[in-house]
Amino acid sequence: MLFWIKSMKSVMRIYRNKKNRFSKKPASISTKRIFIPKACHKLGRAGVFTLSIGSFLFRLPALDGRYGLLLIAAIVMGLGAGSSAQPQETNSVSHGAKQKLSIVTLPEMGHVQFAALGDLAEWLDLRTFYSEKARKVILYVGSSQVKVTAMNPFVQINDRLVQLPLETRYADGDILVPLPYFVDLLRPLYPNRWPEELDFAKPGRQTDNAPDLGPAEKPAPATATPTTPASISKIIVEEKANGTLVRLQTSRPFARKQVSTRLSQRWLYIDVVGARFDSGAVRSIRPAGIVQRVVPQYAGAVAQISCQLKEDIDQKRISISGLNNEILISLPMLDQLSTDVLRNLETARRKWLIDTIVLDAGHGGHDPGAIGPNGVREKDITLAIAKRVKRLLEKNIEARVVMTRDNDSYLSPRERTKLANEVQGKIFISIHCNSNLSRRVNGTTTYILGPAHSEEALEVARRENAVIKYDPDSSSYAGEGEESFILAAMAQSAFNRESEDFAAMIQEEICQSIKLPNRGVKQAGFYVMVGASMPNILVETAFLSNPKEEALLKDASFQQDIAEAIVNGIKKFKEKYEWGI
After folding, report:
1. Domain contains 220
2. Which of 86, 114, 145 is the last residue of a domain?
3. Model-level pTM?
4. H or E element: which one contains 169?
C-alpha cells in the first residue's frame, strides 16, 4: 500500500493515498501521528511508500527498522534546506457543517490558490461526470455544464469557451483549479446563494485596485540592488480565444510592487518602475485583439506602455502575472469573442461533432438479400428497422439523419459509401439480417472492416458481397480479395478505434434489448464499408435462416426494440466523443 508521508520534526503524519474524488468510494484519510521508527516498521511491511518533502516526491521500497529510518533521515537532511525555499502554503475554508475545503498555494504558479475540483464540487453540492482516461470533468452547475480538462487553461461553459489565466493542474487522480479565477466562472451560474468563504482576491489585484505579481518581496540589502535598470526587450500583443494578452519580455524578474495598470478613456496605462526599453522593443510592436495602438514612453524612472483600446473594458477584469522574465497583462473578454475567433472555433468544433448520421438499409430493389424459410426478405426488414431508427434519431438527437435508401430501390455498395462521404457523414451504420445453412444458428453480430479472422466471418462477408452480381459494373470488383480489404482497413485506420468502440456499444445495446445470443464484434471484408471516411459498422441483427428469429424479425415490436437499441448505442458513442468539445 502507498502512503503520503510528510516530515514534521520528530513525528510524521501518514495519509493513505487518496481515492479518486469522483469515484463512489470516499477517500480514507488518517491523521494519526506516529513516531518515525514505528512508521518505518509499519510501512516496511506494506512494500512501497511515497515520501513528500516540500515539493519533492519519492517512491521508495519499504525498509525495516533502522534502515528505513536512516534512508528517510538522509533524504530529509539532504533536502531540508532546499525544500524550504518555496514551500507550498496550505489552508482551508469552512462553511457551516460542511467538511473543510483544502486550499494549496503553489509558488511555481505565481502563488495562486488552488483546490481539488472534486473537493470543490462536494463542497458546493454539485453533480459531476468524470473521465479518468481523458482527465476531464463536467460540473453540472444549475442548468449549465462546465467542462474542465487537466493541464489545460480552457474551460467550456455550455457552448462558450473561456481561457483561464493559468492552466489547471493534476495530482492524485484529481484536477486542481486556480480558485480566484475559477470561482468567478461558477458564481453567476450557481443556483443557490454563493458562499462568501469562496470569494478570493486575485493575485493580480489588491483591495485598492493596485495589481500585483504575487506575494510582496522583502526589501533586499542595499548591496543587492541592481545598479542599472532592467530592460524590456520585447512587447508582444496577442489575441486569445477570449481576450487579449500583453506580454512584456524583460531582462530579469520584477517584483509585484513595480508593475501597475490604470484605465482612462479607452487607454490602458501599464507602468513598470525601474525599467527601460530596448530599441528593438519599441520598433517591433504589432497591435492585436482589442489593442489598436501601443505607445511606449518614459515617465521619470517608470517605463510606461500606453495601449489604446477599441472598446471599453472592466478594470476589475485585468490581471497581471509574472513568470520568469515575463510580465503578462491579461485583458479578458469573457462575454464577447472576435468574429474570426468565433468562426475558427465553430469550424473546429463542427469538424468533430457527430452531426450527420448515415443509415444504410441493406439490399433493396432487385436484390432481396437473404430469404427466410417462410419467405421473409432481408431487404424489407432492414428498411423497416432503418426507418424506425431514423424517426427515433430525429426525435431524440440533434443531428442530420441521411438514409442511403428510403424505398425499395437498389444501390451498389460503392454508391452507398459514396453517398455517405458526399453528405459528410460522421458515422455510418449498415443494417442487415444474417443467414446460415444451419437453421439452428442464431444471435446478433456486429462487424467492422478488416480481414476475416474466422470462417464464419468470411462466409458472412461472401454472402453480403454477393450483392455485386446485381451491379452493372460488377467486373470492377474483380480481384478484390482479402489483400484488398487489408489495404482498405489500413487506409481507414484513422477511424479504426472509433469503429471498434462504436461496434461494441451497438452490440451491447442490441443484445441487452432483444436477449438473443451475443456473437460478438468481429471483422470481415464488406464492400459496403470500403471507402467510408468515418467510423463505420455493419450490424447483423438476427438470423433469417432461423425460423424463430425470422418470426421475430417480422414482428413490429421486435423491430422497434432493435431500433431503440441502435439509437441508444449511437447516443453513447456521441456522448463519449463529443463531451469534451
Report:
1. no
2. 86
3. 0.43
4. strand 169-171
